[in-house]
Amino acid sequence: MPLKEIASFNVKHLSILDENGQWDEDLDPKLSDDDLIKLYRAMVKGREADQRMLKMQRQGRLGTFPPTTGHEAVICGATFATRDDDWLVGSYREMPGRLMRGEPLERTLHYYNGREEGSALSAAHHLMPIQVILGSQLPHAVGMAYAMRYKGEQGRAVVCFFGDGASSQGDFHEALNFASVWQAPVVFVCQNNQWAISVPLACQTRSQTIAQKAIAYQIPCIQVDGNDALATYKATKDALDRARSGGGPTLIEMVTYRLIMHTTADDPSKYRSADEEKTWWDKDPIPRLFHHLKKIGVWDDQKQALLEEDVKNEVNQAVKNFESEVDFKPDAPFDHVFETPSAALEEQRALFLSNLRDSNNA
Ligand SMILES: Cc1ncc(C[n+]2csc(CCOP(=O)(O)OP(=O)(O)O)c2C)c(N)n1
Ligand SMILES: [Mg+2]
Predict the structure, then answer these.
(1) CA-CA to 91 of 20 to 30 Å: which in 105, 261, 282, 296?
(2) Is 138 contained in some domain?
(3) pLDDT at position 86, please?
(4) Number of compact structural domains in the chain
């Protein structure tokens, strides 16, 4: 018997607006001028908040945190495609999207200063809390999406963010498998920034793309220029439309770059070159969209100056609110570890409070 080809696969790459300003008008998602400005504004605000947090961390006013600079097109484009009652399930690198959903920046500042309020479920905004266990959010997202289907909540969906490194976790594969078998309305968005701390993508996987990993699970997939906000929006919108109409999950690989450190405790100059970083600064998603908006006549330098002033004021206000809070319980995280307090934990609480008193008296 001759060998027969029984299946063949391909992976598409979506780019609408490239770093040279080339724009594919046919593929353009045709957002209104107002929507384009909203999307751009969210990206600029995300960058402003991130850079402000970096300064605060360096001044000892904020704990260690993972910056989002460079990831704005992935996060904001995908979030912009969601509806208010869709759930967003992420990890730790989605701050600009959290702001877009209406969660105050103060919540993120609480989280990175070890305040329990930062870990509260942001149910009003349909946001799962920030969490750091790589890949663990994927099965949760599938469970949530399956529950939506099971309860007959037509037209709702879940968007789940994770990194290239997280795609090596077993949770990723289990989640994709269940999502496919159950045809759960979930969109998996891989923020492929090509590094998992100091581990480059080539040490993470031999696959040519992360997108293609969906093929084994019979899930539609696409690779997207993750620094092109028009493309990240369009790919997510298409996937959400499919999910809402009963078409099941999608895996979107968004290729981007973490322009600065993994977290504020990391020094990327130890493992990647300045040349590589420069190449990616040239693809920065924010100036790319800025020039495009100017070119199509919806933006100008005066509007830009006003926007910058505006987002700075908003971020300043959030920082002021956060830093003026004095009446909070610093040991609240200890209340939520076990239902019944344990002696060892109470000992740790006492030590924590005594260290805090010492540092306040220093
Ligand atoms: C299960 C698990 N293993 C290891 C870690 C330690 N860790 C934190 S971030 C990180 C790299 C993650 O890389 P990636 O998924 O690409 O996301 P990125 O930080 O690049 O956005 C590692 C190994 C962890 N948090 N959880
Ligand atoms: Mg990564």
Answers:
(1) 282
(2) yes
(3) 98
(4) 2
